[in-house]
Design a protein that fits this description.
- By secondary structure, the chain is mainly beta.
- It has one domain (2-33, 49-472): Methylamine Dehydrogenase, Chain H (7 Propeller).
- It contains 2 helices and 37 strands.
- It has helices at 2-15, 444-448, and strands spanning 65-66, 76-77, 83-91, 94-101, 105-110, 116-121, 125-126, 131-133, 136-142, 165-170, 176-181, 191-193, 196-200, 205-210, 216-221, 232-234, 237-242, 247-252, 257-263, 266-267, 270-274, 282-283, 287-294, 305-314, 320-330, 341-343, 346-351, 356-361, 367-372, 382-383, 387-391, 396-401, 407-412, 423-425, 428-432, 439-443, 454-455.
- Strands 20, 21, 22, 23, 24 and 25 form a 6-stranded antiparallel β-sheet that branches.
- It is globular and about 55 Å long.
- 54% of the residues are buried.
Length: 473
């Protein structure tokens, strides 16, 4: 492990003119109920440190809103690193950052100083948030290539070439505790419950994995292959989407069987051809929400015309409650889904193909308001109760009034926001930058208090600056 860290230090020093840093100042997390700047709907009870990060975006609503009242907001931009920063998970005094690029590595950093503690390169691309529980960090690897050429049979094809693995790392040292090799990729973020990891994969399986040993406790064969759609939950039902066929599934943990399957065949007379397998559902009051795309081309490529739609399913039966037409657009490359948040009776969701953001009534799918961004976005937004924050693929951060959809402020960050989205943590927006190779920490108050629409990015403070390898040891 020390050799790995030394190698990364040398490489980073050369590329940055002897300046190595991955400064991500992160605070101890505490989930709270939806609040309007700390007003009457704050969660009851005393804030406490988070001891585990067990699911995508920490909360079933997908609204990554965290608060610790005594923690001050921070402002910084980390220097460029060799990996694209895709996601962060925080437990105790450590932030676990997922990188994809030259190293495909998991990084552990001191949450107060940003000082690197360890890094562990893995065997393929990492596209999920890290799960942290029981003193271990769990991540999956793979890629979006098909294991067949030149014309795969999409009814049976597996996704993920090269090595596809699930890893358990020691949270304190980064040492690999166990590795589970798979035939297909493990890109979605799993769920951890009571010592078991539940994962869906590119080899068309639902896996229950013993987190202590890495052994598969039980599994189910699923008709679809999985892509980037993480798992939602409603009680003992775990819900996820797949491709070919494009369908949403619910697995009952009590019976260990598929409880229901809802297949999306057509929308507005067009065959459904995407997004179901990329969209991580938001759960709210026995309903899950996500998005899909339909196209005349059954195997579309980036730029092809599509029709986008948001939908709601009853988690108890799998029946469709409503579908909302998000409009025509062009298929984005690699990731077609708009990932929703669902909270307070409203679903906030993007339509990447036409740069749209909509607020929909969760019960009926009725449009409440809509806005257009400068560029496409496919990451979930964050709601603080009064304002909605979202970042687009060109690196622009937006603040909208949650009730009216009025654009309040806009800040140009550059790069592009990761499709795994940002976190609003104790008054700071932590933005993983998938193109710029940096992480941004932007105080919410910088936007809230700004007198103008266009807000300049504050000058960030680099917490730890490493001018030679010994400084980062």
């Amino acid at each position: 492990m020390r050799k790995n860290l030394d190698r990364v230090r040398r490489s980073s020093i050369q590329s940055l003119g002897r300046q190595l840093s991955l400064a991500l100042l992160v605070v101890i997390l505490q989930p709270v109920a939806l609040s309007v700047h700390g007003s009457a709907t704050a969660a009851a009870g005393s804030p406490a440190p988070v001891t585990a990060w067990t699911r995508y975006h920490y909360d079933p609503s997908n609204n990554a809103l965290i608060a610790e009242p005594h923690r001050a907001a921070v402002s910084w931009r980390s220097p460029v690193v060799q990996d694209k920063i895709r996601a962060v998970s925080i437990v105790g005094e450590t932030v676990y950052a997922i990188g994809a690029g030259k190293a495909h590595a998991v990084y552990a950093l001191n949450r107060t100083t940003g000082k690197p503690l360890w890094m562990t390169p893995l065997d393929n691309v990492i596209m999920s948030q890290a799960i942290v529980a029981g003193g271990r960090v769990f991540v999956g690897t793979g890629n979006n290539y098909m294991r067949a050429a030149p014309a795969p049979d999409y009814r049976t094809v597996m996704r993920g070439t090269g090595f596809n693995s699930i890893y358990a790392l020691d949270a304190a040292s980064g040492r690999i505790v166990w590795r589970l090799l798979l035939q297909g990729e493990a890109m979605p973020t799993p769920i951890y419950r009571d010592g078991v990891l539940y994962w869906v994969t590119g080899d068309r399986r639902f896996l229950a994995i013993d987190a202590a040993s890495g052994r598969i406790a039980w599994s189910l064969q699923i008709p679809s292959y999985m892509s980037m759609a993480s798992i939602a939950e409603d009680g003992n039902l775990l819900i996820f989407g797949g491709a070919h066929p494009y369908a949403e599934y619910a697995v009952d943990l009590t019976t260990r069987r598929v409880a229901w399957r809802h297949q999306f065949s057509t929308f507005k007379g067009l065959p459904v051809t995407g997004a179901i397998d990329d969209c991580s559902p938001a759960a709210y009051q026995h309903t899950v929400f996500c998005t899909g795309t339909a196209s005349a081309n059954p195997t579309p490529n980036g730029g092809d015309p599509i029709r986008q739609f948001a939908w709601a399913l009853d988690t108890r039966s799998g029946s469709l409650l409503w579908a909302y037409d998000q409009g025509a657009g062009k298929l984005p490359n690699n990731f077609a889904a708009g990932v929703p948040i669902a909270i307070g009776g409203v679903v906030y969701v993007e339509s990447p193909g036409n740069k749209g953001l909509q607020a929909l009534d969760a019960g009926t799918g009725r449009l409440l308001w809509q806005a257009t961004l400068k560029a496409a976005d496919s990451s979930s937004s964050v709601l603080d109760g009064a304002n909605v924050f979202i970042g687009d693929n060109a690196g622009t951060l937006y603040e909208f009034d949650a009730r009216s959809g009025r654009l309040l402020h806009r800040m140009l960050l550059g790069g592009g926001v990761s499709n795994l989205g940002m976190v609003l943590d104790s008054g700071t927006l932590y933005v993983p930058n998938a193109l710029g190779g940096v992480g941004d920490a932007i105080p919410e108050r910088v936007l809230d208090a700004a007198p103008t629409l266009e807000v300049s990015q504050p000058q960030g403070v680099v917490v730890s600056q490493c001018s030679k390898p010994a400084d980062c040891g």
